[in-house]
Amino acid sequence: MITNKAPSISDVEVLPRAIDIMAALERREISARELLLQTYQVIARRNPHINAICTLVDLDTVLPQADQIDCARVAGDPLGPLAGLPIAVKDLAATRGILTTLGSTLFKDHIPDTDCLLVERLRAAGAIIIGKTNTPEFGAGSHTFNDVFGATHNPYALNLTAGGSSGGAAAALSAGLVHLADGSDMGGSLRNPAAYCNVVGMRPSLGRVPSWPMVPLPCARMSVEGPMARTVEDCAFFLDAIAGPDKRDPLSKALPPMAPAHPIAPVENRLRLGWAPQPAGLPVDQEIAAVLAKAPSLLSGLGHHVEEIALEALSDAMEIFKINRAASYAALAGELYHQHKDKLKPTLATNIAQGLQLTDADIEKAERSRQRVSVMLNTLFDTYDYLLMPSTQVMPFPIETEYPTEINGQAMSSYIDWMSVCCILSPFGVPCLSVPAGFSATGLPVGLQIVGRPQDDSGVLQLAYLFQQHTHYWKQQPDMAW
Length: 482
Fold this sequence. Notes:
8-stranded mixed beta sheet; 14 helices
């Protein structure tokens, strides 16, 4: 086992896994009411320090749901896989009867009449929706702050960012406020905050988790919803609960079924792994590079073939991503831009304006490039079973900094360039996962990104689980003396 002990990590009892909590509920060792009361106590104690849960449903409103589940469990009635588990949903997801702001002052009083598809599935699985997790305005950017609720703090260092846009979800998991969390990912919003908060975040294959309602544009193919958890097995368990086709999503697919979520099957074959420490020549902070340098030797020691690659096939991918992202935000918020430009954060307003200026020819050119690069990427998977690379290019940065403007002396040309290591994969429908991979000398988490061929979500989870079980970094939790 690697023992890169971080100086700021405490030796307190490890937070329980979601699958263990569900097992305890099923065995009636704890009731849904007791779990809910404990959850609210933890939130009251810790959330004021990190601002991860931005809206909390009144306890008296959700206690009857817990009691109903307890009665059904005693009676032996069939229950969903998440029955009795409290979950806070990302503040981009519409939740019936619960404040849903999208991190925007334009929606600071918005309470939807209906649930989005993800929340429908959570309720059907028996989860108790207790509130919302914080997100940047309209989910734009990998630093979670907005003018409605403020910024979310990293549990490992309260003066630093938790990442984004699912930063509230990642911080809530890391601090033990919730045991599973949903997120969405257009350019790294499941992977970046997972790496910053030492949890697991998975961007599933395109079509694995359907979305509704959605932006009806081809460029919307980049945005997916997916699971976050403290462990790989919890992440797989949660993905099972939210995956599956739905006719309301035209991009939804009846994909081959995944392997059982737990126990995760062992990796039995000798894998061919392409290790890209600087994919497509992207700059990576030296602290991150130093931590991740241990990963190839670990996997080689387990009998797998690891080869360092440049991943030049993705050299044009960032430009493809930027065009599709701008078009997507123009479709999502173009009307709001025309009506309330002055009420949008400047970086978002600029991105929407760029999208509105795009022509059909621009989007068609980007699509042709996407198809060309997609072929090259798929060809790589003829040589390698999985690709490995950093989940982030910079360490968690001061919370008052909007975004990093340079990496290793190289200037960033936009507010999203510093997250290119995630963005360059988003246009191609491949499953990507960030797994805890160690700590810097100052005790800050670093994530390893594992990428598989389209639809191989199970294989990505298997490799991540193998890495987790030989490192156990997830157990090195933040010192929550605050």
